[in-house]
Amino acid sequence: MRHSLIALAVLLATALGAVAPAQAAASRVKDIADIQGVRENMLVGYGLVVGLDGSGDSLRNSPFTKQSLEAMLERLGVNTRDTDLKTKNVAAVMVTAELPPFSRTGSRVDVTVSALGDAKSLQGGTLLVTPLLGADGEVYAVAQGSVSVSGFKAQGAATSVIKGVPTSARIANGAVVEREVAYAFGTEPSIRLSLRNPDFTTARRIAEAVVKQLKGQARALDTSTVEIQVPPQYRADIVSYVTQIEQLKVTPDQPARIVIDEASGTIVIGADVRVSTVAIAQGNLTVRISEAPQVSQPQPFSGGRTTVVPRTDVQVDEGQEQRVVMMEAGVSLQDLVNGLNGLGLGPRDLISILQAIKAAGALQADIEVM
User: Fold this and answer.
1) 222-254 burial, b if ≥16 CB within 10 A, otherwise e?
2) Domain that holds residue 134
3) Would you tell me how many other CB atoms lie within 10 Å of the CB of residue 103?
4) What is the mean pLDDT of residues 83-94?
5) Is residue 96 exposed (0-12), middle (13-18) or buried (19+ Cβ within 10 Å)?
6) Domain-located, residue 296
7) Are 78 and 172 in a shared domain?
8) Which run of H or E residues covers position 310?
9) Hey, what's the signal peptide range on this chain (predicted)?
10) CA 32/CA 49 separation, integer angstroms
């Protein structure tokens, strides 16, 4: 049995002085924000992969595969309605793709193919013509081609080896765009940027960078939106103005946050996390009980009986070598990590300590548990 006791003593509840936040590296606007309206569109389709080496769907367990196969053969002039199909070289799949913005008719996009039924592997298969639909139900691309599987499965009589996911594959440039998404870019008098990590400070800094460096008009509407007016001289060449905006350097700002994944024991601490003066003591009480019974064998013809003599060994470790770590007010991320590492703790204990520091009011950051 292992019991962890964490004793926290808050020596000073208020920080001794304001500490300037760590300077983050400046990023381009194109790396932290997107232009509203310029985005990908999701496409999905249902199709058949043929040419599998006996690793396809079992038609008895996958009736949709049988129905799709019969319908496809009928369109090709082959009647199989009264035939008991038993092939295992066909697999029903879902085909997905992302249609990039401004994709033109005839351009190609990558597609992902995923098995629907009980197929063992898509290795060596070929996807037949599959229309890819958008959210509006219209066909925007058509996919076909040989699938590429990164995983494999080898199976014998008593064991099997599987690497990766053999029932998922990709086709590079496997779909041809048949319909363009209508979007009149550059016809509006303004451009709106959407921040990928919404923040008031970051939005204001982007607007200020546009005003100071490009001599333009911009304002932050909220945490995630910055509106930029297009100058008259760039109305006919909006791409040039967008290029200048994307290359602006801005230092993004984010609230201090600690992200904890208790399932894997992962801890991610933001650079702006600060701790008030606090002392941390962590002690462990470990009790180990082991049994080593011995057999007592009497001498021959002595009339004694063979008995089992119990032997129990009990060891108690109170963690006498554990130390108390002192953290001054406003310590940096490096100091915080060094202090916690000085306790010689594992990720699970660190999670408990961080949560306890937060409960004591000495941690100036949000804790997000995944």
Assistant:
1) eebbbebebeeebeeeeeebbeebeebebebbe
2) 41-177
3) 19
4) 88
5) middle
6) no
7) yes
8) none
9) 1-24
10) 40
pLDDT at residue 159 in the model:
67
- Per the structure, the count of domains in the chain is 3
Write down the pLDDT at residue 150.
82
Which tens digit of pLDDT belongs to each residue from 205-226? Answer: 999 999 999 999 999 999 999 9
Query: Of the candidates 177, 203, 229, which is a domain's last residue?
Result: 177
pTM, 2 dp: 0.68
Token digits of residue 361: 């009011």
Please check whether residue 48 lies inside any domain of the structure: yes
User: Which position has the token pair 């303004």?
Assistant: 190
- Report the phi/psi class of residue 236: left, alpha or beta, with left for phi > 0 and alpha for psi in -120 to 50: alpha
CB atoms closer than 10 angstroms to residue 57 = 29
Location of structure tokens 């007016």: 229
Nearest to 281 by CA among 9, 1, 12: 9
Same domain? 173 vs 51: yes
Determine the straight-line distance between the first and last CA of the chain, rounded to whole angstroms: 27
DSSP structure class, residue 52: -
Amino acid of residue 209: A
Q: What angle do CA 207, 211, 213 make, to 5 degrees?
A: 110
Maximum Cα–Cα distance across the chain: 116
User: In 17-134, at which residue ranges do the beta strands (DSSP E only) sit?
Assistant: 27-28, 33-35, 41-50, 90-99, 108-115, 126-133
AA letter at 80: T
Tell whether 58 and 104 lie within a shared domain.
yes
pLDDT of residue 6: 33
Residues 102 and 223 in one domain: no
Q: Please report, to the nearest 10 degrees, the dihedral formed by the alpha carbons of residues 10, 14, 15, 16 taken in order.
A: -100
- Same domain for 220 and 341, yes or no, is no
Pick from 177, 196, 223: which residue ends a domain? 177
Beta strands 274-275 and 363-364 are: antiparallel
Q: What is the CATH number of the domain that holds 227?
A: 3.30.56
Task: Kindly report, residue by residue over 127-181, the tens digit of the pLDDT.
Answer: 999 999 999 999 999 999 999 988 666 666 556 677 678 899 999 999 999 999 8
Does residue 319 belong to any structural domain of this protein? yes
Would you say how long the chain is, in residues?
370
Instruction: Answer yes or no: is 127 within a domain.
Output: yes
- One-letter amino acid at 127 equals L
